[in-house]
Amino acid sequence: TDMVVGQRVSLNDPASLVARALRQGGPLFVNDLQSSGEGVRSLGHATSTQAMLVVPIIRQGQSLGALVIGDNHNPQRFGYGDVAAAELLGSHLAIAIENARLYESEHRRSTELEALHQASLVVTARLELQSLLEAILSQALKLVGAYDAHIFLYDGERLTFGAAIWPDGRREAPLAEPRPEGLAYTVARTGERMV
User: Fold this and answer.
1) Contact 33/2 with Cβ under 8 angstroms?
2) Tally of CB atoms within 10 A around 116
3) Which of 9, 137, 160, 193 is 20–30 Å from 61 (CA)?
4) Distance separating alpha carbons of residues 165 and 154, to the nearest angstrom
């Protein structure tokens, strides 16, 4: 643990203590910030912070963030007991953050699989091309959360408008025709996706 007391510590960058704690991979506490003569900036705004404790939140060697605790009243607030308690809290936070991220990832994947499943049901249930294209576009919008979607059909030389869906419903014509040297034609010719 690194302790800095009454020493000039630059806080002009609100994240400087956080960055330092993350860089060293361990907790940092700074007491008596005001005696440094700095205009203290903490968490992006001017404060009267007297002492600050920063604990990196690390899980399996990966930095997930930092726990930042400040005291505006006591310039000698933090000691090694505070650091130990904050480190324990930081390890619990790391587990909670990792679990939340795993849940979010699994939920997103489940949503994607459900949208693909629904799209495949639509494809097998419909034989009329226009309604099939519109159903696929509807599922595509749900899958990626986009504003609009278009399908252009390629015959080996030309792209022709197939279908389009916007937030207010389907469109009878595209917003714009694809340009022969544009993105849609390039994807159609190469058969490879582009973002």
Assistant:
1) no
2) 12
3) 9
4) 19
